[in-house]
Amino acid sequence: MSAFRFNLAATDGLARTGIINTPRGDIRTPAFMPVGTAATVKAMYPEQVRGTGADIVLGNTYHLMLRPGAEEVAALGGLHKFMNWPHPILTDSGGFQVMSLSKLRKMSEEGVAFQSHLDGSRHMLSPERSIEIQCLLGSDIQMQLDECTPFPATETEAEKSMELSLRWAARSKAAFDAQPHRTPGMALFGIVQGSIYEPLRMRSAAGLRAIGFDGYAVGGLAVGEGQAEMLRVLDFTAPALPADKPRYLMGVGTPDDLVEAVARGIDMFDCVMPTRNGRHGLAFTARGKVNLKNARHAADPRPLDADSPCPAARDYSRAYLHHLVKSGEMLGSMLVSWINLHYYQSLMAGMRAAIAEARFEAFVKDFKAAQAAGDIEPV
User: Fold this and answer.
1) Nearest Cα to Cα of residue 303 among 335, 345, 341
2) Higher pLDDT, 71 or 99
3) Do the beta carbons of residue 97 and residue 118 sit within 8 Å?
4) pTM score
5) Contacts by 95-98 with C-beta closer than 8 Å and gap 24+?
6) What is the CATH number of the domain that holds 157?
7) pLDDT value of position 82
8) Facing residues of 192 across strands?
9) What is the mean pLDDT of residues 215-244?
């Protein structure tokens, strides 16, 4: 069984392209991971997700530990078999969801005691239990338990939060190394915290490097600080992470966010945006966003994007997509989610090729020009 390994193939400025080798397959970077919260990418078949070009999907530890349960998934052969996805899976630690349910949880040094949003049952999520759950699920890339620092936060508040995450990182690593359910090739990523404060981000990154992880994530961004501030933080955070390990920006984002973050040396992304917006009739295309609810599409016989490799964008009329969305038909959510995930993966493939061919700057210029031009008006 192959080990987890990151091979950097080419750089163009700070942008990087490479391959992450895992026992269940290779992940081409820069990579976008569709979010499969409850062991499913919403409104998509697994083979469709794979067909968009996705090498890896993300599963949610919090939701899966509550339903159907980590031990139950393990007894059924693990998450890959359970959801019919034999390719790599990354699981988050569950910390973000627990933190977002602040009325139901109490945090301590030990971890987070919380009530299930499903039935009110009580649970303790510690660094050790989070790692145990992720190993029971069988995910290929696992995340340390951290506290996602809320925004805004004072520097004092952010420091306290970052230090707690760093202590939990050490416990997560110790638990991962000792975990009996761990199999060869599994990887563990640490998460840099520190809000918008450079000294805190530097201390967090240094502390994580000292512990030693297979990859490094940047957490606590895209939580309300705005794109300009997010990119400013990436400007000093990404270079502080090891060049020979994958760099993962958690929970991001728009197509423009992805391009700007890749330009700053980020390798991996996840976000619910393409599927969540797809379920509400908002499509992402090479010429920007298209709101299919708008009446201007009602009598338009043209496809959404005649040049797209995605059948949903190419083979269905705008009028039909508009009808499905306005009618609340399930097929509307399925088709627009498919369109969006296909576009995101096409964007990543375009960036990988541009970096490999040393033309990333031109790629970015063309991307921004096309997005700025906007969707063409109806005939």
Assistant:
1) 335
2) 71
3) no
4) 0.97
5) 95/125, 95/130, 95/145, 95/146, 95/147, 95/148, 96/62, 96/148, 96/251, 97/60, 97/62, 97/63, 98/62, 98/125
6) 3.20.20.105
7) 98
8) 218
9) 97
Give the residues across from 289 on adjacent strands: 284
Q: Which domain holds residue 358?
A: 278-365
Distance of CA 343 to the CA centre of its chain: 15
Which amino acids are annotated catalytic?
92, 270
State which H helix or E strand residue 209 sits in: helix 198-211
Portion of the chain with pLDDT greater than 70, in percent: 97
Q: Which residues lie below 8 Å from residue 35, measured CB to CB, with a gap of 6+?
A: 41, 57, 58, 60, 270, 271, 272, 275
Q: Model confidence over 181-225: pLDDT tens digits?
A: 999 999 999 999 999 999 999 999 999 999 999 999 999 999 999
Asked whether residue 239 is assigned to any structural domain, the reply reads: yes
Does 257 share its domain with 124? yes
In DSSP notation, 83-97 reads TT--S-EEE--SHHH
Q: For residue 195, tell me if it sits in a domain.
A: yes
Structure token pair of residue 78: 């693990």
> Is residue 225, in this structure, part of any structural domain at all?
yes
What's the CA angle centered on 333, arms 328 and 337, to 5 degrees? 160
In DSSP notation, 276-345 reads HHHTTTEEEETTEEEETTSGGGTT--SBS-TT-S-HHHHHSBHHHHHHHHHHT-HHHHHHHHHHHHHHHH
Average the pLDDT over 166-191 and give the result.
Answer: 97
Do both 80 and 226 map to the same domain?
yes
Residue with tokens 């990354």: 90
Same domain, 327 and 344: yes
- Tell whether 262 and 299 lie within a shared domain: no
Query: Residue 118 gets which letter from DSSP?
Result: T
